[in-house]
Specification:
It comes from Butyricimonas hominis. Helices cover 78% and strands 0% of the residues. By secondary structure, it is an all-alpha fold. The N terminus and C terminus are likely disordered.
Length: 499
């Protein structure tokens, strides 16, 4: 019996909802850590802490070797009895990669600190070095649970792991004034807790299931992961280049400002992450079943429209109320980075759906990787010219945003070709335009109304602006033909059940 339990037991709507809630919870916990530490640390200390996290997250793109996606891709194709055998093979690969990652962090700490121009990084990276050994073993937990219809358990796992992170990293700083070392060592302890819980959850879907051997080989896994790894490698450059140039040429305090300000809209990440977690196994299953391009296109357009209906209103709202958002999250001192936040929100007008799942499922991962390669080279060249001739945080942000949009447009064109359609047929442009227009009008009206009330404090401005915008947006969107009750039910619909 093929692994279809999550289709039978839970609708894609429920699966996407649980994943979205898990992503939202993870984001909120991360923001809590940043909000607290940015207030209890000096700019140099907080910048150092953020650099440690930045180094880990960017290097993880390389050392994970594109393997996390293999859980969704292969588990959706094999009988459930073979699932544990697949997970064991992936686990062996992760042990080797995580060991090399940890050794690299420990032995290369001083070199990395020198490269980023911050000597405080040396000891803190050594404290943090064991973390990859713990976290990389459980990178596939969320994907495994999703494939087997246990997305609600993902929420529990994220709650526990992020709660560990908040408590262990924040308490030492607030109570014992341990500074950066205390926060970093706290993250290591939290990682150990996540490791224990995650390893237990990896076996949860296979309770009372007879174990079987699998014909899947390491070569099969690597064949899938190589284009994913290539795109991750180029994604590493894209994701880290701007922050590297800021850290190297502007200093640790400016890095703290840039790290807090130049951050994509959280709601978009939540939505895209949830949809991606559902689409990769679904597209993989459709490919194995021999589905035609028309079926892919129906599912694709459904996802695009429904994602835009959530992302666009929040994107416009965050762009208009950016100073207040920065003030509430990080304190008054960080209101000045609102301009960076506004620049990066432009990306979310284009990044409303993940392109990776459909390209990897169709065996066109090389196209995905090449688009990121061109973008990475372009970004490095432009960033170098920027710091050489016109150094500016805003210029760095504009370059990063422009190159990201360029990459997304290339992927959009490539996806249209893969599905044998043009750009006009790939996206529901008319409906998307309606959503965007109504969003801009509603949020602008909300901003004007708040200004007339004379309210100036950040949180009251945010809350009242949000409420007014929603009150205006909902009836206008309905008049414009955007029915949210129908649109978001289901969140991700199948072409076989909703043609």
């Amino acid at each position: 019996m093929m692994c279809r339990s999550f289709v039978a037991d839970n609708s894609r709507t429920a699966q996407a909802l649980w994943l979205a809630l898990a992503n939202a919870l993870s984001l909120c916990m991360t923001l809590v850590i940043s909000a607290i530490l940015s207030r209890y640390m000096t700019a140099v200390e907080y910048g150092t802490y953020r650099q440690v996290v930045y180094i880990y997250s960017t290097l993880l793109m390389i050392f994970s070797f594109g393997l996390p996606g293999a859980y969704s891709y292969f588990l959706a194709r094999v009988p459930v009895e073979e699932g544990q055998a697949v997970i064991r093979k992936l686990g062996v690969l992760f042990w080797g990669l995580s060991s090399v990652f940890s050794v690299t962090l420990f032995t290369g700490a001083s070199r990395i600190a020198e490269l980023l121009g911050n000597p405080l990084l040396t000891d803190n990276l050594k404290y943090f070095a064991i973390t990859p050994l713990l976290l990389m073993q459980v990178l596939g937990v969320e994907r495994v649970l999703t494939v087997y219809g246990r997305a609600r358990v993902v929420l529990v796992y994220v709650l526990l792991s992020r709660a560990f992170s908040v408590l262990c990293s924040v308490i030492p700083v607030i109570v014992f004034n341990t500074g950066v070392p205390g926060a970093v060592i706290g993250l290591v302890l939290a990682s150990f807790g996540s490791f224990l819980v995650g390893m237990r959850l990896l076996s949860l879907p296979f309770k009372n299931v007879t174990r079987g051997r699998t014909d899947l080989t390491i070569a099969d896994i690597l064949r899938f992961s190589m284009p994913v790894f290539s795109s991750s490698l180029y994604g590493f450059v894209i994701g880290s280049a701007s922050q590297f140039f800021v850290s190297r040429y502007f200093g640790v305090e400016e890095f703290a400002m840039f790290a807090n300000g130049y951050k994509e809209l959280p709601v978009a990440g939540i939505m895209i992450g949830a949809v991606s977690g559902i689409l990769l196994p679904e597209f993989s299953r459709m490919t194995k079943d021999g589905s035609g391009s028309g079926q892919y296109l129906v599912l694709w357009k459904n996802v695009v429209l429904k994602s835009a209906s959530v992302i666009y209103p929040f994107t416009v709202y965050c762009c208009i109320f950016a100073p207040e958002i920065m003030g509430v999250l990080y304190g008054t001192a960080y209101r000045e980075v609102a301009g960076l936040f506004r620049i990066v929100t432009i990306v979310n007008l284009v990044r409303i759906v993940p392109y990776g799942p459909i390209m990897f499922a169709l065996g066109k991962g090389k196209i995905f990787a090449n688009a990121h390669l061109v973008t990475a080279v372009l970004l490095l060249w432009l960033d170098f010219l920027c710091v050489t001739f016109f150094p500016s945080l805003s210029a760095i942000a504009i370059i990063a945003t422009a190159t990201t949009v360029f990459c997304l447009v290339v992927l959009m064109v490539s996806t249209a070709r893969l599905l044998n359609t043009g750009l006009s047929g790939l996206m529901p442009w008319k409906s998307m335009s309606k959503i965007l227009f109504v969003s801009v009008f509603s949020c602008f009206l909300g901003s004007c109304a708040v200004n007339l009330t004379g309210v100036t404090r950040d949180f009251p401005v945010l809350l009242s602006g949000f409420l007014i915008s929603v009150v205006v947006y909902l009836p206008l969107s309905y008049i414009a033909g955007i029915n949210y009750v129908r649109l978001l039910k289901p969140l991700v619909s199948s072409p076989r059940t909703n043609p």
